Amino acid sequence: MQIIRAQKMGFCAGVRRAVMTAEKALDENKDGQVYTFGPLIHNPEALKKFEDRSLKVLSEKDIPVLKKNDTVVIRAHGVPPETKDKLEKTGVKLLDGTCPIVQVNQKKCSDFASEGYAIFFTGDANHGEVTGIEGSAGKGALSAGKTLNFFLINSPEQALDVLEKNAYKTDFSKTVLISQTTFSVKVFDSIADALKEKLPQIKVCRTICPATWERQESLDKLCSEVEGVIVIGGRNSANTNRLYDKASLLCKHAVLIENAGEIPEEFFKLSRVGLTAGASTPDDVIDEVENCLSGAIAH
Predict the structure, then answer these.
(1) Where are the beta strands (DSSP E) in the chain?
(2) Whole-structure pTM value
């Protein structure tokens, strides 16, 4: 069997930075508890290893239990400004692992909201990054005495529906389209085209992380070279699911797995198998899948 890895796959720089921040906190904090605000990354295999090192996940309602000698790591997705303020007031050691690209996105939305722009934001409801960015936009609008007009969408149809119904009587003369960093490039472009027809003056900021579109482009090439593709990553990971959706369209055999034990039997019978992985998938999980396929470890 020939196993071909996608040119771009696995940990992105932002996730790797957040993971290294958490690992350093665990090494250095000997007196208090180390927490991450929300799951550090969307990968159960990686989270289990952190749990084994006594890393705990903190939620909004748990903030009152924090003690001054505790450490809290903000994950790559970031948090809303009001949440960060609450954490800082507890006196804990706060380590900001927010991805730099997400931080730029937060500032963009805050600035546009303070200038009175209506914001169309392409992303996933309840996703940590989206929650943090909407919170930043809200703070920007509030500081400038503006009303926040923030519309979360994930399809051209949703975007046009917002314009048609205009339930909040929004002024769309100043409008911007921005994106979650892990959103589909193809879908974003289709939404941009639909909105440009209705709002020729719209500003379009394609704030999709290069790591996201590089992985999507690498998958295009990979699918043309193999009989089947294995997408490795957490089922709760937005960018991993988008890779799987694309692989399913381009390749007859496609599967999303979280670990080597989930490889379907059919893949061991193929001559050429491609591997790709989401931005939250650790290197050792990818290596284990490849070793299992090659027969280096039993399946």
Answers:
(1) 2-5, 34-37, 56-58, 71-74, 93-96, 118-122, 149-153, 175-179, 203-204, 228-232, 253-257, 272-277
(2) 0.84
